[in-house]
Amino acid sequence: MQWSFTKRYDSIPVLLVPMAGIHITDIEAAINYWRQKNPSPDGVALPRELRALAEIYALMVYYKEDEADEFTLPLAAAEAWQVWYASTPDTPCIAICSTFQGDPECKGCGRSFEEVQMWTEMTPGEKRSVWRRITVEGTSWRFNRYAERAAEDRSLARAAAEAQVPLGFGG
């Protein structure tokens, strides 16, 4: 994660805060999205979007970076990433929010109270950072108890529902 100082007040630095970054796995996902959407016509030449994202990916691998700053991506890569980002679900919410009952972290989606409140104000990079954290943790109900609510594809929803273990009442 990248870190940056916020403003200084009376020559005292304010707490370090994480900067939004696009994780390398999101760059990979965007590349795969564009490979399906706009495949190479001859199997060799890369379309503009793929070439822009592949360049970022290669630099991240070469310099052993996990994240790229969302605000300094070259225009072609930023545009290609934004198109992929628009194809992903915006919010991890599954309509079971426990932060309103006082939980510091939502049991349904895994976001903190602050993340739920500020979601509409967050940048795409900040949102993807939250998505990555809750996916890696995998403890919220969207990943287990209510996985069928979170499934984008109905066939995946059905498979998730069928995978639930019967409780074994009455028999």
Sum this structure up briefly.
Helix content is 43%, strand content 8%. The chain has 171 residues and is mainly α. The strands form 3 sheets. The chain has a two-stranded antiparallel ribbon. The chain has a two-stranded antiparallel ribbon with strand order 2-3.
Helix content: 40-55%
Beta content: 5-15%
Give the N-terminus to C-terminus distance in angstroms.
51 Å
Estimate nothing, just give the exact number of structural domains: 2
Q: Mean of the pLDDT scores?
A: 82
Query: What is the number of beta strands?
Result: 6
- Count of alpha and pi helical runs: 7
Order of strands in the sheet with most strands? 1-4
The low-confidence parts are 1-17, 166-171
Overall structural class, as computed from helix and strand content, comes to: mainly alpha
Sheet with the most strands, sense and barrel status: 2 strands, antiparallel
Q: How large is the radius of gyration?
A: 20 Å
Order of helices and strands: EEEEEHHEHHHHH
The outline comes out as elongated
Write up what this structure looks like:
By secondary structure, the protein is mainly alpha-helical. The protein folds into two domains: 1-88, no CATH class; 90-164, no CATH class. It contains seven helices and six strands; from the N terminus they run βββββααβααααα. The protein has a two-stranded antiparallel sheet with strand order 1-4. A two-stranded antiparallel ribbon has the order 2-3. Strand 2 and strand 3 (12-13) form a beta hairpin. Helix 1 packs antiparallel against helix 2 (48-62), helix 1 crosses helix 3 (75-86) and helix 2 (48-62) crosses helix 3 (75-86). The longest helix has 15 residues, at 48-62. It is elongated and about 55 Å long. The termini are far apart.
